[in-house]
Amino acid sequence: MNDKVQTGTSVLLPAATIDLFLKDKETSEAARSLVNDWRFARVTVSVEEGDIETAIQSYEQAGSPSLIIIETDTTGDSFVGRLEALSANCDEGTAAIIVGPVNDVNLYRKLTSMGVSDYLVRPVAQDTLSEVIAKTLIDQMGVSDSRLIAVVGAKGGVGTTSLTQALVLGLSQDLNQKTFLMDAAGGWSTLGIGLGFEPIAKISEATRVAANHDVDSLKRLLVQPNDKLSVLASGSDPMLENMVEPEEYETLIDLLMTSYPVVVVDLSASRPALKKAVLSRAHELLLVTTPTLPSLRAARTLMHEIKTLQGGATHGLDLVVNMQGLAPGKEVPKADIKAALEREPSTVIPFDPKLFFGAEAEGKNISQMKGGEQIVDLMLPLARKVVKNPSEKNVESTDAGENGLLGQVLNKFKTKS
Ligand SMILES: Nc1ncnc2c1ncn2[C@@H]1O[C@H](COP(=O)(O)OP(=O)(O)OP(=O)(O)O)[C@@H](O)[C@H]1O
Ligand SMILES: [Mg+2]
Prior knowledge:
Elements: E1 16-22, H1 25-32, E2 43-49, H2 52-61, E3 67-71, H3 77-89, E4 95-100, H4 105-113, E5 118-121, H5 126-141, E6 147-153, H6 160-174, E7 179-183, H7 191-195, H8 203-211, H9 215-219, E8 222-226, E9 229-232, H10 246-257, E10 262-266, H11 272-281, E11 284-289, H12 293-309, E12 317-324, H13 334-341, E13 347-350, H14 353-362, H15 372-384, H16 407-416
Parallel strand pairs: 1-2, 1-3, 3-4, 4-5, 6-10, 6-11, 7-9, 7-10, 11-12, 12-13
Antiparallel strand pairs: 8-9
Helix pairs in contact: 1-5, 2-3, 3-16, 6-15, 8-10, 10-11
This protein binds adenosine-5'-triphosphate and magnesium ion (MG).
C-alpha cells in the first residue's frame, strides 16, 4: 500500500526491537537482510515463522517489542477480531504493520484507522520493508520533523564551540527557528562564556530528569539567550569524573527532539563514546578544522571513521574551515584541503582574534559585537540546510504516540463497547 517514496528516513534509526511473524519466504529473506542496512545498526530484528496466533501467544507472558509485523492469509472480520486479541497482549507503545495477500484499499483504510501503521502486500521487497519500518519507527519516536545537528572539531581548540554559537544564533535570530543547544563537555564546557550564563546544571542532572520525562525540572536547567533559543546551562559537572553514559545522553536527546524542531549538540571537549553516539544519529554533521596540517590530518581520519559509522557512504557532513589567516604562509591552501579531504569546505571563517576574544572578554555573544553578524552570516547556509522553509514559521513539535500505535486498537474497541 505504501508506494510513496519516503523522505527523511536516511538516518540511523533509534534503538528498537522488531518481531516479524511471517510465512512468505521472500519477505522473510528481506527481513533477515535488514541487518545489512546501516540505518538498522541499533535495531534488533527477530524473524519467526508464524502468523497472528503465534504473535498472540508470544506476548501472553513476554513484553511486546517496539514494532510487530504480521503476515496474514485472511483479511476479513475474523482477522480484525484477532488483532484486537493481540493488542490486549501488547504494551501501549507497540506499533504494528500487516502483510497481506491482496491489495485492498478498504482493508488498508480500516486497519490504519484502527492504529495499524501500514498494510503491505506480499512478497515485500527489502527496500520497501526497510523504508516502511524506518518511517514507522521515526513516527513512533516522534522525531520525524526534528533535526539533530552535531558540531565536532577535528581537534581541540579549533573553534567548535564559538562556531556552534554563531550557528544557533543564525538559526534562532535570523531563521526564526525554535532551537535547542547543549554540549557534551560536562565540566570542560565553555558554552556559558560566549552566551553569557553561569553553568547551573550538570549533564547528569539533565539526563536523570529526561529519563523520568520530567519536563518541568528540565526547564529549570535551561537558559534562554533569546525568544527562540534554549540552552542547557550545563558545565558544573566535575572535570575529573566520568559523566554520563551514551545511552543516558541519548535519552535526553530523544526528549528534546519531541519539543524542539532543531537540536544542536556541540561535541567539543566531550569523550569519544558520546561523540560517537551523537554523530551516529545526527541529520547534519559539521566538522570544524583549522587550515593547518595537524588539524586537517585529524579531520581526514575522523571523516573516515564517520564514513564507516554511516555504513560506507557519508551523509550530511559539511566541512567548516575556521581561523583562515591564523598563520599566513604556513596554512594549507584551499585547493590542497579539497584534494586531501575530497570535498570543498562548505564555509571558511576568517581568523579574527579581536572579534572572538573580544566577545569572550566582554561576556557578549558574537552577534552583539561589531562585525559579528558577518560570522553568523557565514554559518547561515549550513543552518538553512536543516530548515525546510525558512520563510515558514518554525515547525512545532510532533507528539510521540499520537498515531499508528497498536495500543490504539485496544482503545478504539474499548470506546466502542
Ligand atoms: N575565527 C576565529 N578567530 C579568532 N579566534 C577564534 C576564532 N574561532 C574561535 N576563536 C577563539 O579560539 C578559542 C577556542 O575556541 P573554542 O573554545 O570555540 O574552540 P573549541 O574547539 O570548542 O575548543 P575545545 O576543544 O576546548 O572545546 C576561543 O578563545 C575563541 O574565541
Ligand atoms: Mg569547545
